[in-house]
Design a protein that fits this description.
This protein is α/β, with parallel strands linked by helices. The chain folds into three domains: 2-135 and 303-323, Rossmann fold (3-Layer(aba) Sandwich), CATH 3.40.50.720; 139-298, Dihydrodipicolinate Reductase, domain 2, CATH 3.30.360; 346-427, Alpha-Beta Plaits. It contains 14 helices and 16 strands. Strands 7, 8, 9, 10, 11, 12, 13, 14, 15 and 16 form a ten-stranded mixed beta sheet that branches. Strands 3-2-1-4-5-6 form a six-stranded parallel beta sheet, with helices on both faces. Helix 1 crosses helix 12 (303-323), helix 4 runs parallel beside helix 5 (105-121) and helix 7 crosses helix 8 (176-185). The protein is elongated, with a radius of gyration of 24 Å.
Length: 430
């Protein structure tokens, strides 16, 4: 039985999940492939720390290059996270003749093109299925079974932490701060949750999906991104009255050669499949010209689901090594399409504001919005006593560029029709 030696960089939650996945599936993998996969070395810079997992101590090394430069290691699995030093380690592993598997969305989004070129130059394999949506096999599906499709859109719930928080706010009416503490206590959110709650994690994943689906490179920092920290229980209640749920959506559209994209809390119709994706689950909803609409759903994060995707990539690489087959780049990041990046485009928007409670104010608001070509789809006003105070007012407006809407709202604040604009959220058109 051929043995494939694996070196693993990192033994955090995903590293432990990957190790556990291989151990509990060892017999099945051997029976299915006729190969023995063995993690022979693990980078652990602090071996004195109890990791809560039974791993022979002789597997641990404290220097990444004890793995990268080991001639007996066939595959390097990078699970450190972050852009650096992870990118350098992966690049050096490819230069040293090692195939690379990673779950690192930040490094792939930032430096995937360079790493892919290195893999191509050295006739090696680079795999990163686990970098988007954890255990959901979306990247390989796009690059293999669905390769014949021209894709027009992707809409995704790509971050389990924010989906868990918004689910609990929706179900229980609990304020954001309380749910965040609960998520941290349960391990769904990091001590520093910034990358999740500000949409950065989702933007990294969307960048990778855009490359695979549309063939254009859009850096995560160029994707218009807004997190969930401004979403209130009041917004969620108002959305429900209109028949919507609020989800952090990562979306991209390819229309007439122009690609628009953004990451933003969005109102999703209760009838849309994404509205019923709850808690830490993820979903990716794509549209292709042959398959029409498809949704991939499952656990998008967590040690074992992500570890499952990592080991899936390892087995894919190992099979090619065992057969002496030609190397490949699958999934294949693409940057060659003749497309234009056109920002976030025009959308329907939900506007939560406080309007001055006096006769004629609604007409003033509608008139001002009309000057900027903004049509009102629906609105709701809470009852007031006509005392000159303020009342909550909700509008959903038709397609408009965000910059035009922002200008119009500033005029409403300046002319005194509106005392505050409490939130502006995108509305997903069903």
């Amino acid at each position: 039985m051929k043995k494939i030696n694996i070196g693993m960089l990192g033994i955090g939650n995903i590293g432990k999940g990957t190790y556990q996945t291989l151990e509990m599936s060892r017999s099945k993998i051997e029976q299915s492939t006729g190969m023995s996969l063995e993690i022979v070395k693990i980078l652990n810079r602090h071996p004195e720390i109890d990791r809560g997992i039974d791993i022979p101590k002789e597997k641990y090394v404290t220097d990444a290059y004890d793995i990268i430069n080991d001639p007996d290691i066939d595959i390097v699995v990078e699970l450190i996270g972050g852009i650096e030093p992870a990118t350098t380690f992966m690049a050096d592993a490819l230069k040293a003749g090692k195939h690379v598997v990673t779950a690192n969305k930040a490094a792939i989004a930032a430096n995937g093109q360079m790493l892919q070129e290195l893999a191509y130059k050295n006739q090696l394999m680079l795999r990163f299925e686990a970098s988007v949506a954890g255990g959901i096999p979306i990247l390989n599906a796009i690059s293999s079974a669905l390769i014949s499709n021209e894709f027009s859109q992707v809409q995704g719930i790509l971050n389990g932490t924010t989906n868990y928080i918004l689910t609990k706010m929706t179900e229980n009416g609990t304020p954001y701060e309380e749910v965040l503490k609960d998520a941290q206590a349960k391990g769904f959110a990091e001590a520093d949750p910034t990358a999740d709650v500000e949409g950065i994690d989702a933007a990294n994943k969307l960048s990778i999906l855009i490359s695979l689906l549309f063939g254009i490179g859009i850096k995560p920092g160029d994707i218009p991104t807004k997190g969930i920290t401004t979403v209130t229980s009041e917004d969620i209640a108002f959305a429900k009255e209109f028949g919507y749920k609020i989800k952090l959506l990562a979306t991209a559209h390819n229309e007439n050669g122009k690609v628009t994209c953004n990451v933003e809390p969005s109102l999703v119709s209760e009838n849309h499949p994404l509205a019923n994706v709850n808690n830490e689950f993820n979903a990716v909803y794509i549209t292709g010209n042959a398959v029409d609409n498809l949704m991939f759903y499952g656990r998008g994060a967590g040690p074992l689901p992500t570890g499952s995707a990592v080991i899936g990539d390892v087995v894919s690489v190992a099979r090619k090594i065992e057969k002496g087959a030609a190397y490949d780049l699958l999934p294949h990041l693409r940057y060659d399409a003749d497309l234009e990046f056109a920002g976030e485009g025009a959308h329907h928007y939900y506007i939560h504001c406080h309007a001055v409670d006096h006769p004629g104010v609604l007409g003033q608001i509608a008139s001002t919005l009309g000057v900027y070509g903004i049509g009102i789809k629906t609105m709701m006003q809470r009852a007031g006593d006509n005392s000159g105070g303020t009342v909550p007012m909700i509008f959903i407006v038709y397609d408009v560029d965000k910059s035009i809407l922002t200008t119009a709202l500033q005029v409403l604040l300046t002319n005194g029709s509106v005392s505050s604009v409490d939130n502006v959220l995108r509305v997903l058109k069903s």
